[in-house]
Amino acid sequence: MQSEEVFRSDSYLKECDAEVVSVNELGGIILDRTIFYPMGGGQPGDTGILRLSDGSEIVIATTVKGKGNENVVHVPIEGQTAPVPGAKVTAAIDWERRYKHMQMHTALHLMCSVVPAGVTGNQIGSEKSRMDFDMGDEKLDKELIADAVNALIDADHPTNIDYITDEELDARPEIIPTMSVAPPRGGGRVRLMKIGDIDLQPCGGTHVSRTGEIGHIRVTKIESKGKRNRRVSIAFTE
User: Fold this and answer.
1) I need a labelling partner for 33 at 20 to 30 A (CA). Which of 14, 138, 141, 168 fits?
2) pTM score, two decimals?
3) What CA–CA distance (Å, rounded) separates 206 from 98?
4) Which of 93, 125, 150 is the last residue of a domain?
């Protein structure tokens, strides 16, 4: 049984009640439902705790995607007693860390709309993030990129989740900015993240509800990573 991925529909839930389905051979904990985001798409897996009915807690070091039906695996820190299947728990994420990931992830989507090039990679962090672009011989300017992204942040565009069928996505390849990783298919539909009228792309990650929540960013550096690849790194201004 696959875990219900509650975070897909509501990124702002800080905790939820769940039941332990199983503990795999590596000690990973699988729940029937969860708000923990599993590492993927450049976004780190969530950390937090599982609070048992007796008040004890299991500290979760990270969350990953498992094999087969283990779509979300909660990885505890070493030395803890694994819960038994059927145990009732309250799953609570490290909200401050997650929210920074949400802000950064949305900021990187805005950068996609500012830099006119295909994306070859990205990495999201709570303090700094980066995105790689297939730029060829074109030059990038740190201040111009930061000013353009911050203008979109100040415009306070709403973000919305939508879905598209695999067939509809095949007919609209222009909405896939990432050249290195294809959107997940096979489930019949693909999750889209829409930011106002300025950005639309497949994405399974967590985002803020409006761009104004991000706060201003600065471009810390632009690096050459190969003949055509340019890496743009950003951080919050405060």
Assistant:
1) 168
2) 0.92
3) 8
4) 93
